[in-house]
Amino acid sequence: MMERLIAVAMLVATAAALAAQMAPSVTRFWILDVGAITGATEPSRVNNSGAMIWNSGGHAFVFQNCQSRDIGHLGGGRTVAWAIGPDGSVVDRSLNASGRWRAFRYAGGVMKDLGGGASSTLIQEEATATNFWGDVAGVESVGATNLSPTAVRYQDGGAYGMAFASLPPAGFVRVQHVVDMNDSRMVLGAVTISGAITTFISNNLGYQWTTVNGVPGREFSTFPSAMNRVGHVTGTAGQGVVRAFLSRDPTLPAADLGTLGGPISIGNGINNYDWVVGLSPRAFVHDGSTMHDLNDRVWNGTGWELREAFDINDFGVIVGQGVLNGAKHAFMLLPMSRFPRTPPCLVTHSTLTISRSYSSDDSRSSHRRALTWSYVHDGPTASPDPSDDVGRTGSQHDASPCAPRRGRRDLHR
Fold it and tell me: For residue 251, is pLDDT > 90?
């Protein structure tokens, strides 16, 4: 136990040092067409290894190294993926053979039912967050309409309710939703009462909660979307005319991130540099000072309208959904300061590598200053630096562009 606490403290300290250093500037991007989306749009996510989850036609996919793979189901033919961990494990919900939604964790090519809901077949389970330690949290509800949602931890084949939170004047209330969980074992949750949404954050896996203050003038509703390693939160504040926000301290007012010129903005994802992505009303990235329209930053954007960005990792890779030649598609944006000599995912025997660049004065202490994706033809795959906890290398040996499986979709959240 003591070793785990020490490791958590080291993670927090490392993340704080990372955030204090100079983040890379917004560059231009190369867009990858991940695949067509049919049915309802679910958020996509990406980890620091460049693995992306996305959903289409009642199927959940992992996209990595220019290819998508269907992660399967628990017997009922339908799966939704909501979160992906640093190790590539995926969690959310899948229908079993009895037509009941079950929380799952997918790792190593195997999908496992996380248990819970033993008291009644009406109880539905959904895992919505996971982290470096393999902790999984989510929501337990009743029936197809998701009545009485309750935030839970999944452990040892069961679902265990999290602590109540103080919400004056209502008193103590059950946290209803788990939105995110980080490697420091902080949990981000929310409660809805009479249409008003309140955000809560826990430093200890949901055993105690702190209210996250909203944007001044928009405190009626503060809906969280994501959290980074040090507990900085983004989401959407207000009602009707809503704004993306960034909260760096739950006890202080959150910052309104503004818009691209219209009345609204929505925050969806955040990385450890406090870059936020979302929509306003088109896909944007906010670099801490300025909100940029991603449609103006793409080298190969012909035929595309990038409508919503869902997530961003520490390398500046952004995932989301847009419209390609009139059809809804998932996308991945790779940061590239210059037009690539060879387009990614369109070459044979190539290696897609995320690499770091260091300042020339002191490579030992300087963290990443630039984000680059390099493409190497028919050469050996370089091994990542063992001290680099986020750099990964993968290979793709297919002469054709990536072509994800597709199908019909009719899902709810």
Answer: yes
